[in-house]
């Protein structure tokens, strides 16, 4: 099984991370002061508000932890800053490629257009890429609890940035049974424009949501997919390597999608050679890092270095990165693997 210190040094890939769930405490406090926003909370209370309880009553309760961050994410400068910092924090724990997702519609309170919002987030990412050499892309979230017209607006706003920082579209937020039917037209539009598709499904509702996300929406990846086992059709699509799972272990415990890590379905999925990756979901809300998630999940399944290398390769393949970037990511793993086997350790 992989040692935690080795995990911290390994090249890692994050495919499922939300911007608004991954802010630094001090930056939230500083931005509130800078923007003259009275949060009516002490600094300790702010920190407590940013982290969801270890065990929430439901996914909806977990999502309440996003209310405070959004208050300080309504300006171009703050979006650039927070995006830059998420990539900086990720780089410092060995993440070499990250797909960061966010919902533009949630950042319009001060009058910014969706295009201005998307542009700011891309700029923050590009600044981090330039300084640290980390590779990144942006996934635009459409909110399931909003009317489909907002999804269409998001897709239209982001299309000019495809290939310039934006790669995919997602459906996120509270999960109702059968939500896919509501978004067939918007996701079809996204596919026609060239967006990759990843969908949150099977987290707070049934495995049939996973199947419909694949069948009706053409999902190439599924966020969470905890209850995929409930649908044989969804399971077979994933088993046949047509669809990739973005697993978020700690988050699933918090939202009561699973009782505990030892009963998480990813264990059986992994044993059945389903392709998946481990992810943070929300670095701050779940009080975690990718190194921690890999260690926790890896401890359950006995993840070895060779196992991790295989998972890393599968994750690179499932990423929405350019082929040239994928080749660079594979080279990073080959170099690490060679050096580790040769007894050379990174500082």
From TrEMBL:
SUPFAM superfamilies associated with the record: Metallo-dependent hydrolases
Q: Which Pfam families match?
A: A_deaminase
Give start and end of each Adenosine deaminase domain.
11-333
What cofactor does its activity depend on? Zn(2+)
Q: From which domain of life does this come?
A: Bacteria
Recite the UniProt keywords alphabetically. Hydrolase, Metal-binding, Zinc
| Residue runs in coiled coils | none
Give the top-level enzyme category: hydrolase
A GO molecular-function term, please?
hydrolase activity
Read off the CDD domains from this record: ADA
Which EC number(s) are documented for this chain?
A: 3.5.4.4
Q: Which NCBIfam families match?
A: aden_deam (TIGR01430)
**Member of which family?**
Belongs to the metallo-dependent hydrolases superfamily. Adenosine and AMP deaminases family.
What is the recorded name of this protein? adenosine deaminase
């Amino acid at each position: 099984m992989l040692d935690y210190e080795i995990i911290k040094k390994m090249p890692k890939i994050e495919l499922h991370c939300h911007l608004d769930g991954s802010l630094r405490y001090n930056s939230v406090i500083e931005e509130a002061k800078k923007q003259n926003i009275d949060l009516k909370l002490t600094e300790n209370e702010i920190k407590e508000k940013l982290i969801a309880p270890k065990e929430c009553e439901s996914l909806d309760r977990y999502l309440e932890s996003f209310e405070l961050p959004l208050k300080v994410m309504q300006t171009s400068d703050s979006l650039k800053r927070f995006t830059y910092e998420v990539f900086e924090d990720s780089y410092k724990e060995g993440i070499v490629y990250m797909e960061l997702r966010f919902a533009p519609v949630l950042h319009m309170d001060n009058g910014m257009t969706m295009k201005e919002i998307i542009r700011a987030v891309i700029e923050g990412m590009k600044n981090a890429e330039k300084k640290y050499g980390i590779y990144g892309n942006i996934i635009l979230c459409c909110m399931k609890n909003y009317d489909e017209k907002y999804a269409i607006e998001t897709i239209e706003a982001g299309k000019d940035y495809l290939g310039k920082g934006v790669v995919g579209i997602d459906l996120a937020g509270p999960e109702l049974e059968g939500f896919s039917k509501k978004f067939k037209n918007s996701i079809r539009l996204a596919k026609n424009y060239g967006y990759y598709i990843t969908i949150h499904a099977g987290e707070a509702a049934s495995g049939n949501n996973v199947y419909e996300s694949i069948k009706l929406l053409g999902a190439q990846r599924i966020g969470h997919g905890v209850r995929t086992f409930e649908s044989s059709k969804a399971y077979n699509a994933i088993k046949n390597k047509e669809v990739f799972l973005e697993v978020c272990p700690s988050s699933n415990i918090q939202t009561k999608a699973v009782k505990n890590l030892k009963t998480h379905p990813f264990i059986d999925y992994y044993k059945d050679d389903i392709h998946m990756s481990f992810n943070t979901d929300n670095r701050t809300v779940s009080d975690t890092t990718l190194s921690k998630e890999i260690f926790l999940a890896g401890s359950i399944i006995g993840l070895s270095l060779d196992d991790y290398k295989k998972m890393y390769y599968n994750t690179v393949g499932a990423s929405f990165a350019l082929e040239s970037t994928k080749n660079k990511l594979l080279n990073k793993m080959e170099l690490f693997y060679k050096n580790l086997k040769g007894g050379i350790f990174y500082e």
